[in-house]
Amino acid sequence: MNHRVILKDKHRIIVKVGTALITQEDGRINLLRIEKMARVISNLISAGKEVILVTSGAVGAGMGIMKLEKKPTGIIEKQALASIGQAALLRMYETFFNEYDQVIGQVLLTRDGIENETRRTNARNTINRLLEMNVIPVINENDAVSTAEIEFGDNDMLAARVAELISADLLIILTNTDGVYTSNPHKNSDAKQVSTVMEAKKDLKNIVAEGASDVGSGGMQSKIRAAEICRKNNIDVVIAEGSDADVLFDILAGKKQGTHFVSKSTGIKSAL
Question: Residue 65 contacts by C-beta under 8 Å, 6 or more apart in sequence?
């Protein structure tokens, strides 16, 4: 059964970009990838899609600017790097999206901004209004002030909660691995890709998902958790390798890319 054909009809789409995709090995921002991402997203919007961008990379960008080789472990140091990197990151997004006549609006969130009812309503209204104004919401966790009590933990979870908040149709998580594998494909050549997930507890029960990169905070486990939250809220999720932003076109054309977590509503439509 081809569930992916339904992805062609998805309208409100969240694209989550991981740190490893938009920063180079030394932590500096990868301008070529951000430029390509801006071009592809602009094309999708011109085709009538609504796109919300959830971006990691603030701390990684700050590391590059300050010429640090290792991510610090102290919360204050990470918050300071996030403050430095966030400005640079948004400046790059703004520069490249402007080339395609697209305006962006920054939205910084913490967990209490989603869980507190008043702030939750305000966040939803702001994002919806930006979309009505044809402005691309660029969302990140407010790492410069976030603490353990109010942080999401990683931007995969942030993307899932935002998807739920604004009733998105599809969350695309772009990373450096082409979806979920039976084991780490970077270490095991026998690893097999899992193309479709109907229920993670059953379909991924024998999967061992490993942790994060040196610059990122989320590993495959966090992506699977985020995908299951969305799937249970009738939001499809695709986890795919995103070094080439053209993968977004393929996913929305119903082509086989990465791992597709099929929502209940998509499963029903596919069966009709």
Answer: 27, 28, 84, 85, 88
Each residue of 152-164: pLDDT tens digit?
A: 557 899 999 999 9
Rounded to whole angstroms, how far apart are CA atoms 268 and 134?
Answer: 32
Quote the CA–CA distance of 223 and 210 in Å, as a whole number: 11
Could you tell me which CATH class the domain 3-271 is placed in? alpha beta
Among 37-46, 77-86, 220-229, the minimum mean pLDDT is found in 77-86
Of 69, 64, 67, nearest to 87 (Cα)? Answer: 64
The pLDDT tens digits of the residues spanning 171-206 come to 999 998 899 998 888 788 888 899 999 988 888 877
Residue 102 has pLDDT above 70, yes or no: yes
Look at the alpha carbons of 229, 144, 127, 99 in this order and tell me if their dihedral is positive or negative. Answer: negative
- Break the chain into its structural domains and give their ranges: 3-271
CA distance 268 to 272: 7
pLDDT of amino acid 47: 96
The average confidence (pLDDT) of the chain is: 87
Angle between helices 220-232 and 155-165 (to 10 degrees): 10
Q: With 0-12 CB in 10 A as exposed, 13-18 as middle and 19+ as buried, what is 193?
A: middle
